[in-house]
Amino acid sequence: MKYSLLSIIKEGFKGNKGWKPVWRNPEPKKSYDIIIIGGGGHGLATAHYLASVHGIKNVAVLEKSWIGCGNVGRNTTIIRSNYLLKGNQPFYEKSIQLWENLEQDINFNAMVSQRGVLNLFHSDSQRDEFVRRGNSMLISGADAELLDSEEVRKFYPKLDFKNARFPIKGGLLQKRGGTVRHDAVAWGYARSADQRGVDIVQQCEVIDFDIKKNICTGVKTRFGTINAKKTLVCVAGSSSRVMAKAGISLPIESHVLQAFVTEGLKPIISGVITFGAGHFYISQSNKGGLVFGGDIDGYNSYAQRGSLPIIENVCESGMALLPMIGKARLLRVWGGVMDMSMDGSPFIDKTKIDGLYFNGGWCYGGFKATPASGYCSAYLLANDRPHTVAAAYSLDRFRQGFMIDEKGMGAQPNLH
Ligand SMILES: Cc1cc2nc3c(=O)[nH]c(=O)nc-3n(C[C@H](O)[C@H](O)[C@H](O)COP(=O)(O)OP(=O)(O)OC[C@H]3O[C@@H](n4cnc5c(N)ncnc54)[C@H](O)[C@@H]3O)c2cc1C
Fold it and tell me: What residues flank ligand 1, with Cβ below 6 Å?
């Protein structure tokens, strides 16, 4: 069924009885051309682009729980391409371009809202760094504008401009950045892939791989062995655990990241703001809730909930930037498991096992990457070579000495 104004009006007159389930609930077949492990944003996007761009439809997405239960439905919904390094910037710009056409492509309202992302700076040296970043963005075809503090005040008069410790000296604005309704992205990609013939199998955990003579020929599940010519592991926070079953250890640690939502308030924040003197980012949802987050919890964990000290830390950062936030009541706090790589950048690559591919290491920036990640993973699976914008995301870049250390933090996953 194609969604359109006409179909909504028609269904309205028929008591909305004609809508069908958005995707099928198939039993898995014995074999596929490609199996994707993990029905998060990246796995589902890969399935969509395999079918729509490469015409490869004999594909299964195997999800251990339900579609959208992972980080794709837990993030703070921010999209942007304000990266500095050449290994990253073209990839994230490709992602923004795919976001811009996503709703037409998948015929689903994902509420893509290019409301702007503003990174604040608080010192002269930080301004220099942001100027460099902005220039790098412009060179790769992205948009970037440098604002002084008076221009920031016009957008956001409620910020604490008098803060003696963290004076707001200006900001780097990317107007094409913004927010997207996170779980609609999972549903939209799932629906589109399903309509093109991809099997999405929920409640189907992959418990092992079928690997003989260094060739992966399929996976083991509660439905038995399912064969595939190629298998892509796309499980975000579970990357290390799943790849360990194939005997591969990764330069990835799992950490918890929390998100926060307040009660609904009148509109005060029109776009996304990041605080340059601490780790804090905030936007306001269409329902009025302030949606914000900060640092990871700082210890390794596979739990989808975090600790109280980081809640205090994030709220303190919020108070330093926007003191009125102290009067808002927090409605919800939750956590997700981050696949933190050692340089803060991701992987989209073949592994040393024939037929086994890996997508992961997204840290807490993987939502914005979803379309480009799916697009480039599909390209890799279809052509057996990396897409040009994802060529730097190789698994052996640490061995070769080509880290993509966007933040300049070194091999410190807790700092990326
Ligand atoms: C609180 C929070 C805030 C964030 N904010 C942002 C943000 O504002 N902007 C941004 O760009 N990024 C953000 N992120 C990061 C982003 O959400 C992730 O990087 C991205 O969603 C990860 O990719 P995914 O959607 O494929 O992961 P997931 O949705 O986690 O998908 C992985 C799937 O694999 C499944 N799985 C695991 N093991 C198996 C198995 N053995 N067999 C089968 N299936 C399996 C899981 O159940 C899960 O559904 C945030 C994350 C969190 C938690």
Answer: 37-43, 62-65, 69-72, 74-78, 205-206, 234-238, 242, 257-259, 293, 336, 362, 364-368
Check which CATH number belongs to the domain holding 20 and give it.
3.50.50.60
* Same-domain check for residues 219 and 360: yes
Q: Which structural domain, as residue segments, surrounds residue 274?
A: 117-179+253-341
> How far is ligand 1, taken at its centre, from the CA of residue 139, in Å?
30
- The CA 126 to ligand 1 mean position distance, Å, reads 31
Mark which of 303, 318, 341 sits at the end of a domain.
341
Q: Number of folded domains in the chain?
A: 2
How far, in Å, from the CA of 133 to the mean position of ligand 1? Answer: 27
- Domain boundary among the residues 289, 317, 341 is at 341
Q: How far is the CA of 175 from the centre of ligand 1 (A)?
A: 25
In a shared domain, residues 334 and 350: no
C-beta neighbour count of 81 within 10 angstroms? 28
pLDDT in tens, 120-137: 999 999 999 999 999 999
Residues 57 and 74 in one domain: yes
Residues 15 and 73 in one domain: yes
Dihedral sign for Cα 183, 42, 339, 364, please.
negative
3-state DSSP assignment of residue 338: strand
> How many CB atoms lie under 10 A from the CB of residue 356?
23
Give the pTM: 0.96
The per-residue pLDDT for 380 is 98
Q: What is the CATH number of the domain that holds 333?
A: 3.30.9.10
From 119, 226, 239, 367, the mutation candidate for ligand 1 (largest count of ligand atoms within 8 A of CB) is 367
In testing the pocket of ligand 1, which one of 235, 273, 314 has its CB within 8 Å of the most ligand atoms?
235
Write the DSSP string, 228-281.
EEEEEE--GGGHHHHHHTTT---SEEEEEEEEEEEEE--S---SEEEETTTTEE
Tell whether 306 and 397 lie within a shared domain: no
Residues of the chain with confidence (pLDDT) below 50: none
User: CB of 394 within 8 A of CB of 349?
Assistant: yes
Supply the pLDDT for residue 319: 95
